[in-house]
Amino acid sequence: MYKINTYDAFSDILVKLCSSVQYNYIYVSLGSKINEARVNFRYPSNDLNLKSNAEFQMIPKFIRQQPVSNKILSIIIDDFHDVELSYQHDATIHNITKTYKNITVITVDHLITQKSIVKYLTEILNCIFYYKINPTRFMITNFICFKQPIDTQLQFENELPVCIQTIMDTVHNGYYDICFYQWYNYTYYTYNYIYCYKKFSFQRLLSIQQINGIFKQILKYDYLNNANSESITKYVNTSHKNTKKKWELFLDNSIDFVES
Question: Which one of 158, 183, 189, 246 has the minimum C-beta count within 10 Å?
C-alpha cells in the first residue's frame, strides 16, 4: 500500500504506477475509511444494527471477484487524522491485499473539499484517459455522509455529488460521465448499495419513498440483498406498471457492493 498526504506526491505515484502497470480496473472511493465496527439505524426500527461495510466501500466485492490475472488499482481518499483509525485502516488493507494480491492500493490522507476534489479527480481522469482506461473499467464512488449533520455538513453532502458530476461531465468532454456512483447513505435497506449518479439521481428522488415503503412491507426488518430482491420483483410484477418501472430503474442503476 502506498500512503501519501499531498497532491504532488499523489500525482507522482499515480503516473508512476499507471506508466509501469497496465491496469484492468481503477476504482476510487471518497470518505470510505472505517469509523466504527457496527452501524445503528433508527428505521424501520430503533434496535437495528449492521456490521460496518467500510472495508467493502474501499474495495468492493465486485473488485475482489475479478480474475486474479486482472491488475486492480484502488485509490482511497479520506481524512485519516485519527491515529487509531489510521492503524485500523492499514491493518484492514494489509489483510485484503494479502488475500487479493492483484490489488494495489493508494491511500490519500487528505481532507475532501469541493476545491480539493476538483484537483484530485481531474488528475485521475487525465491520467486514466492518457493511459486509455475504458469507462467500463473505471469507477469513482462517494461515501461521504454525516450521521447527524449540522447545516454546513448537510450543505456539503448535497453539493459534493453535484461538483463531482460536473467534473465528470466536463473533463475530456464527459468521456467518463457515467462512472460516478453515489452511496445510498445510512439507510438500512440500501446500506450496501450505490447508484449511478448521472442516470439515477433525479429518478431516485422521485421513487425512493415508494421503494422504501415496499421494502418495509416485503422485507420487514431484513436489509436488501441479491437474494431477497427477487421477492421485491415478484411483488412489483403484480403492481401498477409505474411501480414496476421504478423498481426496474432502481435495479438497473444500483449495485450491491458487499455481495455483488
Answer: 158
Please identify which residue in the block is written with the cell numbers 455529488: 161
**Residue written as cell 415478484?**
234
Class of domain 2-183: alpha beta
Positions of CATH 3.40.50 in the chain: 2-183
Nearest to 119 by CA among 11, 32, 27, 26: 11
pTM: 0.96
Per-residue pLDDT, averaged over 102-129, amounts to 97
Phi, psi of 16 (to 5 degrees): -60, -45
Q: Which residues contact 203 (CB under 8 A, 6 or more apart)?
A: 246, 249, 253
- Residue 174 is given by DSSP the state G
Q: How far apart are CA 54 and CA 35, in angstroms?
A: 8
**% residues pLDDT > 70 (the chain):** 100
